[in-house]
Specification:
Among the domains are: 325-410 and 418-427, Lipocalin (Beta Barrel); 451-807, Deoxyribonuclease I, Chain A (4-Layer Sandwich), CATH 3.60.10; 833-990, Immunoglobulins (Immunoglobulin-like, Sandwich). Helix content is 16%, strand content 33%. Residues 453-807 form the Inositol polyphosphate-related phosphatase domain.
Amino acid sequence: MGTGGGVGVYKVPTRAAVHPNRPPCLELRPHPLRETQGGKFLRTIASTETQLWAGQESGVRVWNYSDAYESGTGMGSGRKVPRGDEDTAPFYESANTSPTLCLMIDQGTKLVWSGHKDGRIRSWKMDQNFSDGTAFKEGYSWQAHRGPVLSMAISLYGDIWSGSEGGIIRVWAWESVEKSLALSSEERRMAAVLVERSVIDLRTQVTVNGVCNISSSDVKCLLSDNVRAKVWAVGSLSFSLWNARTRELIKVFNIEGQLENRVEMPSSQDQVVEDEMNVKFVAKSKKEKSQGFLQRSRNAIIGAADAVRRVAKGAGAFVEDTKKTEAIVLATDGIIWTGCSNGLLVQWDGNGNRVQDFICHPSPVQCFVTHGSRIWVGYASGLIQTLDLEGNLIAGWVAHNEPVIKLVIGNGFVFSLATHGGIRGWNISSPAPIDNILRTELSERYHMYTRQENVGILIGTWNVGQGRATHGALMSWLGSAVSDVDIVVVGLQEVEMGAGFLAMSAAKETVGLEGSSVGLWWQDHIGKALDEGNTFERVGSRQLAALLIAIWVRKNIRKHVGDLDVAAVACGLGRAIGNKGGVGLRLRVYDRIMCFTNCHFAAHLEAVNRRNADFEHIFRTMTFTRSSSLFHNATTGGSSANQMLRGGNAAAANPDEARPDLGEADLVIFTGDFNYRLFGITYDESRDLVSQRSFDWLREKDQLRAEMKAGKVFQGMREALIRFPPTYKFEKGKPGLGGYDSGEKKRIPAWCDRVLYRDNRTGPAKECSLECPVVASIFHYEACMDVTESDHKPVRCKLNVDIAHVDKSVRRQEFGKILQTNEAIRSSFEALRFVPETNVSTNKISLQNQETFNLKITNRSGEEMVFFQIICEGQSTIKEDEPEPVYRPRASHGFPRWLEVTPAAGMIRPDQVADISVHHEEQSHKLEEFVEGVPQSWWSEDTRDKELVLLVFVRGSCSTDFKTHRVIVRHCFSGNSLRIDPGSNTSRKTDGSIHQRSANLR
């Protein structure tokens, strides 16, 4: 019954060999099943010119971009591939460490810095030999904080800044870090001691008489404003702005841009306040009168229903929670962008003044990255958007099915990391014409990466009427039918009833608790019937009061099944009580999404419209558990994830999400006690037809069949032809067809207990392919009439399911071949290397004390704007006995403290000139430098002349390449006259990539 292929929200989701609604991507690390990632979840990524680094719960891993299109061999040199990384491009892992929370690239020293949960900062060499197959080790580390290192940044002067819990910000001057790096591996312990002793605690510096001017909330982000030599420290609801050279506090302001003067409470009190904010207490009336049991039960149910509604609607939540700052970035025009938990994007100038705000997508902002004239934004919904510098939307697409938590640029791609650990690379110019070329070429090669599988699924449903089954009954129903199936899904109704139990269940749902001892009893005893532990493995379950759904998977396909999510929708009193409603499980099987839903709809013959409404409510509002909390609570195979009960319309929480979760699945199966009855027939007539097994006549009187034919319920779904007697209502303990209700009410027998499904087919003749990846057919549909423990008979249904899926390792290789061989794509990539012509006014500058030189950068293009960045390649102390200066870089190519370059980055419009101030700054006597771990006076080395090399990087608005100009700067302490070579240097083109950090020169 039913033909499949609904319309609207019931429409079959679009599937294709290559996703039609987003640019083709490089799947560096395909989405691993969550159950494979225990202790290995990726938390962050960072990119160098040749590598992508990832921080994970057990250390770090690294990919060489040169291996990006290789087959999925996981780790290099024959090491065992971790589960979940079978299709991942070759990578290398470090030795085990505490969980990595943040990463920072230091091109100046060729190091990657990592911040960890144990409070340590570790260094890793970029250019070490990874090919020997052994886990690589850290360079050296030190204890930076007592708590976790939540954020890190390298300032314009090469200092390492780190943030932790409680508003703690600590700085390590480059001089002390440099000295420690120079020590041998045998002296690492001494190096760590030297660095730890050299710490500058900024919170202590700004605390006077116990009053601290900065927030005690966690330092979520640190941003180095390399345009103006400042550092932004970001808490959830406030910012602190610091001078990068002197490390002095400039201002503290809140998310509205208002200055703050704060008197902080002790951290223990903060925790109490936070706890009070997160818990809503309901006071009891002092004059509460004694009431009868029924009245108290009614009040309990109504109260619980009201509590559930408030939670579902978010009532009582603080407005500030929706405005929390989640991410920050410096755009190439010098504007600071922040993203909030309500989707708000805020622009700030370099002094911390709020410029404007707007929303492009109503989902929490998770991350940013900038390139040229574009801002890339990653959202918790899995969406990526590209915006121009004014905030105008260029494009957007769903990049992942879970939150995008990090974006980085490398090797001509923007790489996105999702909470599940998948990493995808998007062409830096997307959306662009090459996307269509790639999609066409890759789609035509579908036969090379298409794989087909077949699984058998057994669905069982039973309204147990608050009873318990014998082992014999469970064997008759389930145990005897599993020899030819791979997945078993069981739905039970009326596991427990009663006003007190239902009220307690509703109350527990409001705090994320679910399940009961009776529910566990059923799962354990069903497991015994399925030979759980030997043949099948229990994957998960969900209980909502009287409703329970659980799933078991045969062990030989377990590695292909996972990502279990759960959901519940109440349809009882006030859409909040679980005597009626639905519970659901969603999981991936061979990378295809399957949803199983167990329902119990409204009772009574005349309540057809209520039953239809129950289905509609469940289908539209069932929202499965997302994985935003996976970092803290990784779900493993045997446990159910907590899922808050949905009483209202979940779609309202995300207006942009047009389709409900069930509508996005490849296979949807509804089972349960739907309560549809037989109409237009008497009790005696129905009994006669049943005894004669005249099911054809009875089916014509089936309410569900009539409502589906009219398109009022289960739109687009199918059911096998019913060839078994009605399963309701029986007298408990009475075998055979004589057991139908013969009491005073004489309820008309009915097929209340059903199984319906929808696969990817839009019509009956569609074959299994990547365009129609899941094709199901029912080969067994029957009731177990010999089971007498309930007034319903259990029903079972077997489906044969064909699944088409992608070998992502092979597809990635084909992706690489197309990029390397297609002439149109190669021409497009070459065009992206174009950099407009620029000119720098001099290639040599000489400065005496506190003198300033005006360096000019001219954009000679009449049409294209350019973006520039100035770094210090290295500094040398002039010595008479050294014919050639030896230039030593600082961290991240930072400037020495005696030099100010303003702005150090920016945007230049066509035919415009940027004026750059190159200034010698006399340092304060209070400023301390660290030499060999010991504070030295600022003037200790200033009696000698110094020389450094400034590199001016220039790129176009979408350039993947850049040009460099080289400028020599000499500081002459001896008082020699200023010497300037007026000649302009020529541009030297250099391959590579660099992250832009720019000033607004408009």
